[in-house]
Each structure stands twice: as C-alpha cells, then as structure tokens.
Design brief:
Layout (H helix, E strand, L loop, with lengths): L1 H18 L12 H5 L26 E9 L8 E10 L2 E12 L2 E13 L4 E14 L5 E16 L2 E8 L14 E9 L4 E10 L5 E11 L2 E8 L4 E9 L4 E9 L3 E12 L1
C-alpha cells in the first residue's frame, strides 16, 4: 500500500503540474505576495525577482533574505520550500535562489544564480543560470539539467512598467531532459499612489496561452490587499501583505476549479 501511495502521489503531481496556476513543475513559483496577485509580477519590482524577472534585481539595493512555503492543495507531499538572497554589487545586483519540492521518493530541486543591471535610466536587464535536479526512487533514476533565463524591464513613464521574460531558450534536442520554453510579457501601471494594476500573457511550449490580471491596493499604512485572476483553470487569487519592523510578511491563496486552494506564506528580511 505504501508503494502504491507513493506512485499515486507522483502521478498526481505530474497531472497538477500541467494544470495548476503560477508555475510549472520545472519553474517553481515563489513569493506569497506574487501569488496573491495571480503571479502578475514580471513588471513589478520585488524580492522574488529571480523566480520571475531578473531585470527587477537592478532595483534591489539592499542585502535581503527571504523564505517562502507553498502548500499545494493541502497535500504535504506537494509542498515547495524556497529561499532567496539579493546582494548589491555596485551598479548591479546579484540574486541566489533555491527551491525544493517533494518527499522521500520523489524530489525536485532548483538552484539559480542571477544578475540584474540598469542599462539606462528607463531600461534594466537580467540573466540567470539554473540547475535542476530530479531524483526518484527505484527504476526511475535521477535527472539533471542546466538552462538559463533572461528578462527586460522598461519604464516608458513614471507610472508605467513593461516586463518581458524568457525561460529556457535552449533547444530540447541537445538535452536529455525536457524543459519547456516559456515567454511572459506584461505591463502594469500605478493608477494612483495606493493602487497598482497589471496584466500579463504567458506562452509556453506544449501549453495553451495564459492571460493573468492582478492588482495591489495599500489599504492602510504598511498593509496591502491583493487579488488576481488567471485563465489557466479559471483561477482566482487573493492575499495580504504587512510590513513589520523586522520583516515583510505576505500571505497568498490561489484557487483551482477542481483541486482546491493552494496557500503560500513568505517572510522577507532586509539588512541595510
């Protein structure tokens, strides 16, 4: 029965990875704040830039450390734990990220090293090298893969930001392990000093076009309310964020029309 349960969980994960919002099996999502907005975030500056658009790293000028946990559909075997760090480096900023998914008999790890830099007053760019490792018990064996991703962030005006991100431009014909190629394009605007809204389109090899919308509203000093929608499984998202003295605390919830709710929590510490 134990072996049957392990196989069932692995098969179930493969199924939901193809249907769940906010990141596929090879591109782990991170950031409860981003989850609350339905992952409309490639045009928005934030700590978890190395999971979404490395160009945003150029605007992170403080040494920061963050933790994130995603509890997918309240199944502990499907939990994802992520950590990240941003390091100012002169005109550029570096990002280091690590994500772990799985349980004893099926694990997937991702490690990334990123760099973001301002090319001009209105344009920044970033690049990241990723290493993926997948380990399964028994005859399934282990797989490793290396790829890269890159992004641009353009601010044509003070209140408008445009983000472009490309994951895995490397052809799968030269690798043993399949990795999807994904392009994300999005734009966002500060409608006023308290309200930000954005829209994003994602195109991924072997998948349907996904459209996302999301907003963030500063309801009170240091308190944010977020919400979003994705055409992928008609998924709704909502969340809260609070800036405490020592850390920023975020909660995010994403629905799935058939499988239930995925919850996320993250803590971000800034060390000046």
């Amino acid at each position: 029965m134990s072996s049957l349960h392990k196989i069932s969980v692995s098969v179930f994960y493969i199924f939901l990875s193809l249907t769940a919002s906010g990141g596929g099996p090879y591109r782990p999502s991170a950031g409860a704040g981003e989850a609350g907005m339905g992952y409309v975030c490639i045009m928005k500056n934030g700590f978890w830039s190395s999971f979404h658009n490395q160009a945003s790293l150029a605007y992170n000028k403080s040494f920061s450390f963050g933790l994130n946990y995603e509890n997918r559909f309240s199944i502990k075997e499907l939990g994802t734990r992520s950590v990240g760090m941003t390091i100012p480096a002169g005109k550029a900023s570096l990002g280091v990220v690590y994500s772990h998914f799985g349980y004893t008999d099926f694990k997937r790890d991702m490690t990334g090293l990123a760099c973001g830099i301002k090319l001009s007053e209105k344009i920044s760019a970033g690049i990241q090298v990723d290493y993926f490792s997948e380990r399964a018990s028994g005859e399934y064996g282990n797989n490793q893969s290396v790829t890269c991703e890159a992004g641009l962030l353009v601010t044509p005006s003070e209140n408008i930001r445009i983000g472009i991100h490309l994951f895995n431009p490397v052809p799968n014909s030269i690798r043993k392990t399949y990795l999807p190629t994904t392009l994300r394009v999005g734009a966002g605007t500060d409608l006023n000093k308290l309200l930000f809204a954005g829209v994003e389109v994602e195109m991924s090899s072997g998948s349907k076009l996904i459209i996302r919308t999301g907003f963030e509203y500063e309801a009170a000093k240091k308190l944010w309310i977020r919400s979003g929608f994705s055409t992928n499984n008609n998924s709704f998202s909502f969340g809260l964020g609070y800036l405490a003295k020592i850390a920023q605390i975020n909660l995010g919830f994403t629905t799935h029309e058939k499988l239930g709710v995925t919850s996320s929590v993250s803590l971000i510490f800034k060390i000046h």
